[in-house]
Design brief:
transmembrane; 0% strand; CHASE2 domain-containing sensor protein; single chain; 82% helix; mainly alpha
Length: 122
């Protein structure tokens, strides 16, 4: 893999960690935009804390993967990709398209993290 691609995937992984950390905190404090967006797509308020825990686990796994056990990072990246595929599908099923760019962007960051760990784990 080229050094440029490796560096780009690492930067995207760091951005994935930062963006998801922000989201976890927003979910933990029940930020208005989180509650509003969840309601729009039909996700009950009671699910927000569980989603925050799942997303936090992904963030923790990415960080651990960067610190050493690459397979943990790989597993975390796979989990986040699946999480955001579900988020995009949820937006599509609810026909909420005005803010679908956010879960799509998070999905792309998670996919880049997956690429980073897939190439660096082997």
């Amino acid at each position: 893999m080229s050094a440029v691609l490796a560096t780009g995937l690492l930067v995207a992984t760091l951005l994935c960690i930062a963006a998801n950390t922000f989201e976890v905190v927003a979910k933990a404090v029940s930020a208005k935009f989180v509650v509003r967006n969840s309601a729009e797509v039909g996700v009950g308020r009671e699910w927000i804390r569980y989603l925050a825990v799942a997303e936090a686990a992904g963030v923790a796994g990415l960080v651990l993967g960067l610190l050493g056990p690459r397979l943990i990072g790989l597993a975390a990246a796979v989990g986040l990709v699946l999480y955001f595929i579900a988020a995009v599908v949820t937006h599509i099923r609810a026909r909420v398209f005005h803010n679908i760019a956010f879960p799509v962007a998070f999905l792309l960051l998670a996919a880049a993290a997956l690429g980073h760990f897939a190439w660096s784990a082997g």
